[in-house]
Amino acid sequence: MTFWGCELKPGAKPTRVDSDDRPLVVKQAAMASTAEKLTGTCTLEVSVGKGSMKYTVCRLTAGRTEQWPLDLVFAPGEDVHFSVTGVCPVHLVGFLDEYDEYDDDEDDDDQDGMMMADGDDDDDDD
Prior knowledge:
This protein has a 4-stranded antiparallel β-sheet, with no helix packed on it. Strands 2-7-4-5 form a 4-stranded antiparallel β-sheet, with no helix packed on it. The chain has one helix at about 100-125; strands at about 1-10, 15, 25-30, 40-50, 55-60, 65-75, 80-85, 90-95. By secondary structure, the protein is an alpha+beta fold.
């Protein structure tokens, strides 16, 4: 795992995330403490894919909800863009996960074995 973080400024062009060909896991959004004083509300949005619709991830409000836990997972190579509307920058933190293609193969083998066992039971019933 490798730490990942970025700062999103309100009104700026959406920030494209480069995950370095590894799964990106975003764990928290927080109103940036770099602001002189936390005031108002800001909304974090995400879009995945070129020209795709923006989706609201969370709405942060000074003095009430200044940070929000997340569990967003993006596959390697996905075209992910984050943006913020409102009055305050937002920090996103998470990590770049290790990608082990052999794990997927092992899961497939287990499922195939279970399916074969089910198939064998069906043959016995005839």
